């Protein structure tokens, strides 16, 4: 069972700019309905980190119907949208965690995860905020510990600054992961998956092509 005993702080908003009131009691009751209670060693899990409005979690749940998707997101407005789409589409294999991803990583000493998706993490482009970026070598090593053999990590970003930061993190973790698409001509998401999230569309509208990095556990 996931708890709230993490020590690594995450930055960013939990609510959008909308002034629409939310009944938090009802919200947390709805989240609890889809909360992961215990891991099942017979199942494979997918960790979807920073799911925004939940488009990636819905995509993964449909693509991998035999696996359980854990959608980890503290953004309340996004989770509400995800909950509505889960109910609307009658999806059975998504579990929500409304909190810190480090809590998920520290909740298990076993290797339950077959796949990790991290689409459009906040790039924190200002130098003074660089320490807030999620993708670091230390973070990748933490993921390595909870992944099954030959499992993969997919990281997407449209930030040039973050791309450079990710490349440095991958290099520093070269003993832990193989960068599968390192020598391919294209790193664009659409070369691999037909999915368009809100942040993907925002990038395209701003004439930025999101890049996708694929890592495999060694």
Protein topology:
Blueprint: H1 24-33, E1 45-49, H2 55-63, E2 68-72, H3 76-89, E3 94-97, H4 101-105, E4 113-119, H5 137-146, E5 147-157, H6 160-172, E6 177-179, H7 198-205, E7 211-217
Parallel strand pairs: 1-2, 1-4, 2-3, 4-5
Antiparallel strand pairs: 5-7, 6-7
Care to describe what's here?
With 218 residues, this protein is of the alpha/beta class. The chain has one domain: 3-Layer(aba) Sandwich (Rossmann fold), CATH 3.40.50. It is built from seven helices and seven strands; from the N terminus they run αβαβαβαβαβαβαβ. The protein has helices spanning 24-33, 55-63, 76-89, 101-105, 137-146, 160-172, 198-205; strands at residues 45-49, 68-72, 94-97, 113-119, 147-157, 177-179, 211-217. A seven-stranded mixed sheet has the order 3-2-1-4-5-7-6, with helices on both faces. Helix 2 links the parallel strand 1 and strand 2. The protein is globular, with a radius of gyration of 17 Å. Mean pLDDT is 89; it is low at 3-7.
């Amino acid at each position: 069972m996931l708890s709230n005993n993490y020590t690594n702080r995450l930055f960013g908003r939990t609510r959008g700019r909308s002034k629409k009131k939310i009944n938090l009691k009802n919200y947390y009751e709805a989240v609890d309905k889809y909360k992961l209670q215990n891991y099942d060693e017979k199942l494979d899990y997918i960790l979807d980190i920073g799911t925004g409005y939940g488009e990636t979690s819905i995509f993964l749940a449909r693509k991998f119907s035999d696996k359980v998707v854990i959608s980890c997101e503290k953004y309340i407005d996004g989770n509400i949208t995800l909950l509505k789409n889960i109910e609307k589409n009658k999806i059975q294999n998504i579990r929500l965690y409304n909190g810190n991803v480090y809590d998920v990583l520290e909740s298990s000493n076993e290797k339950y995860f077959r796949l990790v998706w991290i689409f459009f993490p906040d790039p924190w482009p200002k130098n003074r905020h660089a320490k807030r970026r999620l993708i670091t070598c230390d973070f990748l090593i933490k993921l390595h510990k909870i992944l099954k053999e030959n499992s993969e990590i997919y990281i997407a970003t449209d930030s040039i600054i973050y791309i450079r930061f990710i490349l440095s993190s991958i290099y520093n973790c070269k003993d832990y992961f193989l960068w599968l698409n390192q020598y391919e001509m294209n790193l664009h998401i659409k070369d691999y998956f037909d999915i368009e999230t809100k942040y993907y569309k925002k990038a395209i509208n701003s004439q930025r092509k999101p890049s996708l990095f694929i890592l495999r556990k060694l």
